[in-house]
Every structure is written in C-alpha cells, then in structure tokens.
C-alpha cells in the first residue's frame, strides 16, 4: 500500500512522504501521529495516539517531521532541533541506565506502556567505520556488550554539534549477562540509600 503511494506521488522515501514542514506553525504531536497512521497503518501509531492523548503537554508538543520509525519506536524532529522519540516499553534494554555513550537526553517520561525521550539531534555526515569502533569501545569500557552493532553500522551512531560521538540506538548496548543487570540495579539502589 505505501509503495503504491510512493509511485503515485513520486516521493523518494517514506520519511520525505511524512513531512510536516508545510504546516506554517508545524504540527502538534497528536496530529502528526494521526497523519503518520494514515500513511503507515502500523499499530504502533494507534498505541502512541492512545497514550499521548492522556498528556496535554506532550500531545501539543510541536513537531516538524518524522525522522525515523522502527518496529516499536518513532522519532520526530521538534522545531528547536531536538528529537522526540516515542517507544513502546523502555528503549533501554533491561532498564539499563542512560550512559555517556548514549544520545544526550533533555527529558524523559512514561505514559502507560509508552516511554518518550527528548534527545539531542545528532548528525551522520562524514562518519566512517573508524567512528563505529570508537563507540563500540566506549560501550565495552562501561561494562556492556554490543548487540546487533557491526563494524559497518555507521547508521547506528551520530555526532553532536560539539564533535562527540554517540550511539543512536540504545538497544545496541546490553548487559553482558542477567547477573550483571541484577548487580547493577542492586548497586544503584545502595547508592540511593546513602
């Protein structure tokens, strides 16, 4: 269905097809989600619409365009150049904490089963395989293992305006074992008690 629409409209990509820049004041997130659902009949948009409508501040957040969608997440650019990411469930595997190699977060929250994150916008122009190795080393130095993140996966990393490299997809950095996850959670709870 979507492929046919591409052919009818001569659009180059799915993301350019779902672009809200034509709106003079951009578009509230709830309207953008509805428009995204019209074009891409994925059930994740139904979940995002249901959960987002419970929060007036989030549902009225202005967005410029959809910049990406996965099987359980969608990301929109905001007018101030940040990325608003919506995810079914915690985007960090086994609820691991946000780490220094992850995209910087400005805000995060949860509504029902949907998590949302306001992140720094990263760029991917001019990145090479060598940068992938730098990010993989940063992940390993923090005690995690890389998952579904290969030497040529430049699309999994980004660079900030100040030149720092970050991992775009937090699911690419996981605890080495379940024991490591449990130990980390116990350690964090002890720190909170002090």
Q: What is the domain tally?
A: 2
Structural class: alpha+beta
Tally of contiguous helical segments: 7
Largest sheet: 5 strands, antiparallel
The fraction of residues in strands falls at 15-25%
Give, in order, the helices and strands.
HHEHHHEEEEEEHEEEEH
Silhouette: globular
The Cα radius of gyration reads: 18 Å
Helix content: 25-40%
Give start-end ranges of low-pLDDT stretches. Answer: 1-18
Cα end-to-end separation:
57 Å
Question: Average pLDDT across residues?
Answer: 80
Assembly type of the shown chains?
single chain
**Number of DSSP strands?**
11
- The side-by-side strand order for the widest beta sheet comes to 3-4-5-7-6
Short summary:
The protein is α+β, with helices and mostly antiparallel strands. The chain is built from 7 helices and 11 strands. It has helices spanning 2-9, 14-17, 29-39, 43-52, 56-59, 129-141, 178-193, and strands spanning 27-28, 62-63, 65-69, 73-77, 82-88, 105-111, 114-120, 144-146, 157-159, 165-167, 173-175.
Can you describe what's shown?
The chain is an alpha+beta fold. The protein has two domains: 2-88, no CATH class; 129-193, no CATH class. Helix content is 34%, strand content 24%. The protein contains seven helices and eleven strands. The strands form four sheets. The chain has a five-stranded antiparallel beta sheet. A two-stranded antiparallel sheet has the order 1-2. A two-stranded antiparallel sheet has the order 8-11. Helix 3 packs antiparallel against helix 4. The longest helix has 16 residues, at 178-193. Mean pLDDT is 80; it is low at 1-18.
